[in-house]
């Protein structure tokens, strides 16, 4: 009888600096009935050797060496080799709590759940933030359709997910995941997690969500793309994801609800990747989503994450704003153009016209705004993002997306 209850799949590419910690955290699990499948996706560094060396020391480890094919192809290769009844995915530059597998499995068995979801930790530059789901509990099929799916991609607050996209804070049933994963095109290289999670959710009958944080997600400076060379390629890739989600969710969601959810999701991803300012080729104009700001405004940018970096990079090319200062509570050495990251205590109201908080998450925006107000920053200068649905739909159409969210590259 097969005693393997969980197959843990780790896609690996170019992360030799972090891989050891990831593998060690899995081998030290309190839960024993699992196999560890390390998928070397043609990694050009020492990762292949690290995988082989660990496999010699522990019989639970399987190693797959394959030509580079991207994240989805690595996850598919791992699933093909899996023999566990349940599947967990872990990214090779992250690590997990000692009770990660034990907790996920007990949640699944106790609730006969197709999907188990937990909280996680976000580690950035040595600082750790705890992130917990806002909707813990058990959901049967009726509640999944009425309470989870209708808010999964966009929960009504721009732009916050009702269900996190990540696959690594979840436990899947292998038999159900096999019906989903192989349908996801390998061409989807943006939002791979969302493609898996939301299409899997559409087939789930029982879901359990726990607040317990068990996974350590490492946010790395070198993993953030700082400039977009060709927006059309980005739009095309985003269109593949959005069209796939529409095709998989159109049988379980009302058309208006589904279109609204995907519209806001697409808009949020375009904003982050474009650095906020979006060029409308048809009209030869810029769409500026930051309310009240104008071309030439003296601006402070708060956040050195992906969105903040893209704002700085885009402005370096366009010169749309006069960026006076770049700040973050996670102060660290980072430079784009002439701007380096400064602590939030370094700004004064007299220096700038407006302050942009570079986040699409309303909860984060609210908490950061409160911190700034405590520091004496004029709240009237802290701007919001334009979230008017009619404006967003017009923008998306003008850029070149059709009603099925496919981008016309021509």
Give me some keywords for this one.
single chain, 410 residues, alpha/beta, Spore Coat Polysaccharide Biosynthesis Protein SpsA, Chain A, Rossmann fold, 3 domains, ten-stranded mixed beta sheet, six-stranded mixed beta sheet
CATH superfamily of the largest domain: Spore Coat Polysaccharide Biosynthesis Protein SpsA, Chain A
Q: Which structural class do the helices and strands define?
A: alpha/beta
Report the strand count: 18
Helix content, binned percent: 25-40%
Largest sheet: 10 strands, mixed
Low-confidence runs of at least 5 consecutive residues: none
Amount of beta strand = 15-25%
Count of helix runs: 12
Mean pLDDT: 94
Q: Per CATH, what is the topology of the largest domain?
A: Spore Coat Polysaccharide Biosynthesis Protein SpsA, Chain A
Oligomer: single chain
CATH C-level name of the largest domain: Alpha Beta
What is the CA-CA span between the terminal residues? 56 Å
**Total domain count:** 3
What would you say the CATH architecture of the largest domain is?
Alpha-Beta Complex
- Computed over alpha carbons, the radius of gyration is 22 Å
Rough shape? globular
